[in-house]
Every structure is written in structure tokens, then in C-alpha cells.
Design a protein that fits this description.
By secondary structure, the chain is an alpha/beta fold. It has helices at 11-22, 34-43, 57-63, 78-88, and strands at 4-7, 27-30, 51-53, 70-72. The protein has four helices and four strands; from the N terminus they run E-H-E-H-E-H-E-H.
Length: 95
Amino acid sequence: MADIGLVGLGVMGSNLALNMAEKGYTVAVHNRTTSKIDTFMANAGPLAKRLVPCKTVEELAAAITPPRPVVIMVMAGAPVDQEAEKISKDLAKGD
């Protein structure tokens, strides 16, 4: 099970996920464009063992130990709202 989830594997999200993994956390990662997940994992090197690739937000929510913290690292504005709305359907009170 992952300690935290991260949505958005652009430059900032990818680096944040790797930094958390380097500090010993297990991170569930998701990106809207799923091919980015595959590329990210292929380039994660030895940190890949601390990363849980999730093709859907449902998989992401299921991969995180409750209470489930999730970081959304996507473009500001409407994309944040859209991702938050998608994932909130799979989270519980207190996540």
C-alpha cells in the first residue's frame, strides 16, 4: 500500500513523486495521459520499487493507505477542479 497519492506527472509532479520515494515513502502515481505513467516508471530507476503506477483514479484511491492523502500537481484552474472532482468520488471522509 502507498503512503500518499500523486496526480499529474509533468515536470513538477514527477520530481515531487521521485523526491518522496527517495525519502522512503511509497507513492501511488496517476496521470490522465496513461502513457506518461509508463514513461515515468521506466525512467524511475531504483526508485520504481517505491512507486505504484495507477492507470485510473479508482486504482489510485485503492492503492493508498487510509486516511488517503493525495497531491494534485496539474495546471492551475479548471484542470485542478476536474481532477479533484474525479478522485473525490473514490475518497472517504477524512481523506
